[in-house]
Amino acid sequence: MNNIMNNLRRFMYGRYGLDQFSRGLVILSLILSIAASFSRVFLLILIAYIPFVYAVVRILSKNYPRRNRENQLYCRMMDDIKKKFSSLKLSLVGTKTHKYYKCTRCKQSIRVPRGKGKICITCPKCRNEFVRRT
User: Residue 73 — very low, low, confident or very high, per pLDDT cuts 50/70/90?
Assistant: First the structure.
């Protein structure tokens, strides 16, 4: 058993390994394969292998700079998506104590307390003033 682990360590030495992008590709492949098993579409089964094969190629790659750039791009893209969903959730659901408005000039999101009636809101970014009901 110890010999197998040493051989694996020697093989993986100098290789890029697993990162967030590779994990995302494996998860995407898993989701596609589950969808393919329910729909029984042969083409979707083949498509499900593509992200998995690319993830394995990335894991075994020795090109650190390129894989690191790809991972950073993926992380930035996922952060943007997470921010959009969290702001969408706040705008749709909001909270019981606060309401969210966008500045009419710079589109900055502004949080104001609920239940104060008509108030004059001053944007902290551009100092634009507008009146809204809370």
Answer: very high
Average pLDDT, the chain: 90
Which stretches within the chain are classed as H helix? Answer: 2-12, 20-39, 42-60, 64-92
The overall pTM is greater than 0.70: no
* Residue burial 15-26, b: 16+ Cβ < 10 Å; e: rest: ebeebebbebbb
Give the pLDDT band of residue 41 (cuts 50, 70, 90). Answer: confident
Give ∠ CA 91-97-101 in degrees, rounded to 5: 35
Both tokens assigned to 4: 């197998």
Residues with Cβ < 8 Å from 105, sequence gap 6 or more? Answer: 123, 126, 128
Q: Is 134 helix (H, G, I), strand (E, B) or coil?
A: coil
CA distance 32 to 63: 28
39-47 mean pLDDT: 87
Segments making up each domain of the chain, as ranges: 1-93, 95-134
CA 37 to chain centre: 26
- What was the pLDDT predicted at 100? 85
